[in-house]
Hints:
23 strands, D-amino Acid Aminotransferase, Chain A, domain 1, 28% strand, alpha+beta, Rossmann fold, binds adenosine monophosphate, binds glycine, Dna Ligase, domain 1
Amino acid sequence: MTAALTPTGSHAKAPPMNILLVGSGGREHALAWKIRQSPLLTRLVCAPGNPGMAAIAEVFDIKPTEVARQVALAQEIAADLVVIGPEVAIEAGLADALEAAGIPCFGPSAAAGRLESSKAFTKAFCDRHHLPTSGYRICDDAAAAKAALNHFAPPYVVKADGLAAGKGVVIAPDLATAQAAIDDAFGGGFGAAGARVVIEEFLEGEIGSLFALCDGKTSMLFGWAQDHKRAFDGDEGPNTGGMGTYSPAPVFTLDLVDQVDHRLVRPAFKGIASDGAPYRGVLFVELMATRHGPKLIEFNARFGDPECQVLMLRLESDLVPYLLACATGRLHEMPQPRWRDDDAVCVVLATQGYPGPAQSGSVIGGLDQTFGEGVVVFQAGTSAGPDGEVLAGAGRAVNVCATGGDLSEARERAYGAVALIDWPQGFHRTDIGWRALAR
Ligand code: AMP
Ligand code: GLY
């Protein structure tokens, strides 16, 4: 595998690689699209994948959390590398099982992944290692959570402790709404994730998503973007997993990037290693750029979805050597990644009703066409119908992405392509990138 890591020139001599990519979202479709372009690749297998991924890779119907079956698949295809997309596989210990089987894996152990899977763990981690974040209280019952509200001013931030696919957060403008959110969480409204609740100080500022790779020792920044978490235009409506992204985002000045690197990224990797769980994979730092510098909103142990989509469109370097270098402890051999000068935009199309209950199974038409210049369309929660139609799930289903010479051009191209998709049961935001354009 050594040649695969040589930064330039020797790709042609690199041994062929079989890669297993775990997951089925827009993030994984974007990763598959980028991995597919690598001259190092022989075979790309995705599990479970989606109809969009099936067009560019082999797919096997195995869930990300079916750890033993994923490991068996990796062995069967003689995988040289397994790339884990979603957090549920990390929490389920897929990286640990792959390590035990001697298969290089991009994605942290379950212990290192606790930076995402438990907000309470992360808050204690920030205290222990002096990372800047919001003030907080962790509460195990509704009465304690309601009492904790007295220590904060509105708007109140009420979060489920565990994984809730970006939906376990309520920003409540007043006490009554916050109390209702607490009752909802302990009443099962956030699923098992809500058995414990974190009440947080509200951070004022502009939000950002920054990504950093680590191989257990060496770290490297790997791009940044801005997401739009609310469901509707003007940042109205409930929080979602993300309704659209753009990159580069002007909130990330060189100074902010440097501060995030030194105050959050490096201390996080050092801290988690000193806690006995060296981090191998990508760390997603969701932060608020406040008047007092960057403050952590949350860590995620994976690429962002839909941040990954715009990063992959802008990444000029081959992705595969970076993934492999993280998995094999050789990130120090890698040069800084190269990014295209282009801007990139991703518009998420979701089934009406998302992030609440929504009807799955509607037909998405128009995906099978040649879109305009710079446009790439990824699929997320889709499945194949009996006659080969693409059927939407109950959430985010399609990511229409485009690059352009500037943000306006990228946006025009993306929304031009959105208009070509025939899906009356879907909805999308029409203002992706507004903060950058409003500057
Ligand atoms: P999370 O699931 O923790 O990423 O939170 C979802 C969204 O809620 C974030 O993207 C922010 O827009 C917002 N949010 C979360 N925590 C805070 C906070 N402490 N202060 C202000 N906004 C927050
Ligand atoms: N887009 C935010 C996330 O992936 O959690």
